[in-house]
Design a protein that fits this description.
Radius of gyration: 16 Å
Number of strands: 7
Largest sheet: 4 strands, mixed
Strand order of the largest sheet: 4-7-6-5
Oligomer: single chain
Shape: globular
Number of helices: 3
CATH class of the largest domain: Alpha Beta
CATH architecture of the largest domain: Roll
């Protein structure tokens, strides 16, 4: 068997705030998860998305420090249409989350926007333009 991508994990400073961000994107995460040290959800297609508190990460990697600078990885969420990109952008930035690049019609044929989750992970919203 060859390895297959199964889980994308991130370290978070504030689990409840981070999960609030992803719930607003439609992920089904139970409210009681807000106080957990490790949370994961299975996405359509089977890949899992997981969050660990910094304290949890340091239980197995005591010298871990948060990266600095711009994120090197972005999670991209496909929206139903361009209006949905705009709607999620407005909802998330209106809730105080950082909007990096406001929605625009990209030359590659998508409505595109970039946000950051509470820990600085890049989160892209996109939808095909036109028919």
């Amino acid at each position: 068997m060859t390895p297959r991508l199964d889980l994308v994990g991130t370290a978070v400073a504030d689990m409840a705030r981070t999960l609030d961000f992803y719930r607003r994107l439609g992920l089904d995460i139970p409210a009681e998860a807000d106080s957990e040290q490790h949370v994961e959800v299975t996405l359509p297609g089977g890949v899992r998305l997981a969050w660990d508190t910094v304290e949890m990460v340091r239980t197995f990697h005591p010298g871990w420090t948060a990266p600095t600078g711009s994120p090197r990885v972005n999670l991209a969420f496909r929206c139903a249409d361009p209006a949905e990109v705009d709607r999620y952008w407005a909802e998330l930035t209106g809730a105080g989350f950082h909007g990096e690049l406001p929605p625009w019609d990209a030359f590659w044929g998508q409505r595109y926007a970039v946000l950051h989750d509470p820990d600085g992970t890049g989160v892209d919203l996109y939808a095909p333009l036109g028919g």
